[in-house]
Write a structure and sequence with these properties.
Helices cover 38% and strands 20% of the residues. It is an alpha/beta fold. The strands form 5 sheets. The protein has a 7-stranded mixed β-sheet with strand order 14-15-16-13-12-17-18, with helices on both faces. It is globular, with a radius of gyration of 23 Å. The termini are far apart. The structure holds nicotinamide-adenine-dinucleotide (NAD).
């Protein structure tokens, strides 16, 4: 019997499901059991061509609709997503393995937030009038054209919406390629947009690995590429986009610092460290995986952290009591287990976890290492799994310098009751998305994105509009033209 997660077909182009079984089969594995629940096929060159030509053809008419009309469609899609939250959350859990306890509140809901927010902004995208004596200049905010979105596997619904909603609000069309690991959810976003009234071809989904992504990025019809992925992929995609002088948004990896001063509320700081390391089993780009704890509270912090981490409930992700799911794939599990071994070898002190859980699926116990030093592999490289490194520090000056000593710059957090210090420290940290006495909040109203190797551009908020539109400036002369001859 076909599993309920199996989509009708692999791709969604021009308002309908499309299949081409000549493409390489991509198995969809449910991470909690290791069972294959669906199969999709990578896009063949014919499918890629169909998606790009459709999106190119649909864009102009979409951009000519008023912002109010476009916004209404996006907001209707948001309502449909919320009505179907339960089913979409179950699918998200099948796609990623994340527990339903999380997906019910974090995935279709945040996708709907993006559709609603950018739907609301669509009618207010205007230009400026710049008086110049009798003459004037006016500006128009115009769509870029055809945009490509490429997703990572940790938030398949959210990433499709974070890219699709601002792109469509500005009058662009999009071809979206989900991660080959989680191909299911973006198809539902495409289906819902059509149901909400989006013209066929405005938002299309094609499946595939890096080659399909590469074919999309290098196509001369494409005006913009928005990627969520790792730094090495980001470098390749950025370079390929540069060849065609295309706009880019790069949401890449991180190794973010979370700094806890000894005046911090310990339970809140422990809560921040848990949210910043163990949500989605640690598969979150903005995670604060280098937890710097001031020496005065170190042992108290570690004791409370170990106690609360022990309360994580590993189990069937479809059981709403489960609070901690598996790694997305066996491969990702093995990568993370490799880092845990490195941590042990290099002399970090294991506080809790540190092994594969004794159950079906790709579960790793939430793991905390203490006495981690700046040079250890687990403190330098992005692990993308439930492995927290706790490092000690003495002074503010020292911790800021150490926190910044990384190629990454996605996020940073500070816990302290001293607000002057909190703002000063955040001011000195090289990171794009920061938190004071909190960690990992990502409301659509706030810009999200990194500095340094963690990325270029911003998603969410009004900032995203700037990255999916461009300004045309028009000089209007009222009098005669003066010329030298
Ligand atoms: P990945 O870099 O392996 O893949 C990302 C996407 O790029 C996939 O869809 C993949 O098929 C595609 N791709 C790969 N090679 C390509 C190429 N040459 N041309 C075009 N597309 C190509 O990343 P992943 O393993 O799916 O996700 C994990 C990474 O994503 C982590 O580093 C994580 O930090 C990062 N991430 C960042 C954010 C953020 O918003 N900053 C959010 C989630 C994940």
């Amino acid at each position: 019997m076909t599993h309920p997660a199996q989509p009708k077909a692999s791709h969604f182009i021009n308002g309908e499901y499309v299949e081409d079984t000549a493409g390489t089969p991509i198995p969809v594995i449910y991470a909690a059991t290791g069972e294959q629940i669906a199969t999709v096929h990578a896009a063949t060159p014919a499918i890629v061509e169909q998606a790009l030509s459709t999106a190119k053809a649909a864009q102009k008419a979409w951009a000519k609709m008023t912002g109010t009309e476009r916004g209404r469609i996006l907001r209707r899609a948001a309502d449909i997503m919320r009505e179907r939250n339960h089913d979409l959350s179950v699918l998200e859990t099948y796609d990623t393995g994340k527990p339903l306890q999380e997906t019910l509140v974090a995935d279709a809901t945040s996708g709907a937030d993006a559709l609603e927010y950018f739907g609301g902004l669509a009618a207010s995208l205007t230009g400026e009038h710049i008086p110049l004596g009798e003459d004037w200049v006016y500006t128009k905010r115009e769509a870029l054209g055809l945009c490509v979105g490429i997703g990572a596997w940790n938030y398949p619904t959210q990433i499709a919406c974070w890219k699709g909603a601002p792109a469509l609000a500005c009058g662009n069309s999009m071809v979206f390629k989900p991660s080959e690991t989680t191909p299911l959810c973006a198809l539902k976003v495409a289906e819902i947009l059509i149901e909400a009234g989006a013209p066929a071809g405005v938002f299309n989904v094609v499946q595939g690995m890096g080659e399909v992504g590469g074919a999309l990025v290098t196509d001369p019809r494409v005006d913009k590429v928005s990627l969520t992925g790792s730094v090495p992929t980001g470098k390749k995609v950025y370079a390929a986009a540069a060849e065609g002088m295309k706009h880019v948004t790069m949401e890449l990896g991180g190794k973010s610092p979370l700094i806890i001063f000894d005046d911090a509320d310990i339970d809140n700081a422990v809560g921040g460290a848990i949210n910043g390391n163990f949500y989605s089993s640690g598969q979150v780009c903005s995670n604060g995986t280098r937890v710097f704890v001031q020496k005065g509270i170190k042992e108290k912090f570690l004791a409370r952290l170990a106690e609360r981490t022990g309360n994580a409930i590993l189990g069937d992700p479809m059981d709403e009591a489960t609070s901690f799911g598996p790694m997305v794939t066996e491969n990702q599990m093995n990568i993370v287990l490799g880092y845990i071994e490195k941590g042990k070898e290099e002399g970090a002190r294991l506080i809790c976890g540190g092994r594969r859980a004794d159950m079906d699926g790709y579960f790793i116990e939430p793991t905390v290492f203490a006495d981690v030093t700046d040079d250890m592999t687990i403190a330098r490289e992005e692990i993308f799994g439930p492995v927290m490194s706790v490092l000690d520090f003495d002074t503010e000056e020292e911790v800021v310098a150490r926190a910044n000593d990384t190629e990454f710059g996605l996020s940073a957090g500070v816990f302290t009751k001293d607000f002057t210090r909190a703002h000063r420290v955040i001011g000195n940290l090289e990171a794009g998305s920061c938190f004071i006495n909190s960690y990992n909040d990502a409301p659509v109203e706030a810009p999200f994105g990194g500095v340094k190797a963690s990325g270029v551009g911003r998603e969410n908020s009004k900032e995203a509009i700037k990255h999916f539109s461009q300004v045309k400036s028009v000089y209007v002369r009222m009098g005669d033209v003066e010329a030298a001859f």
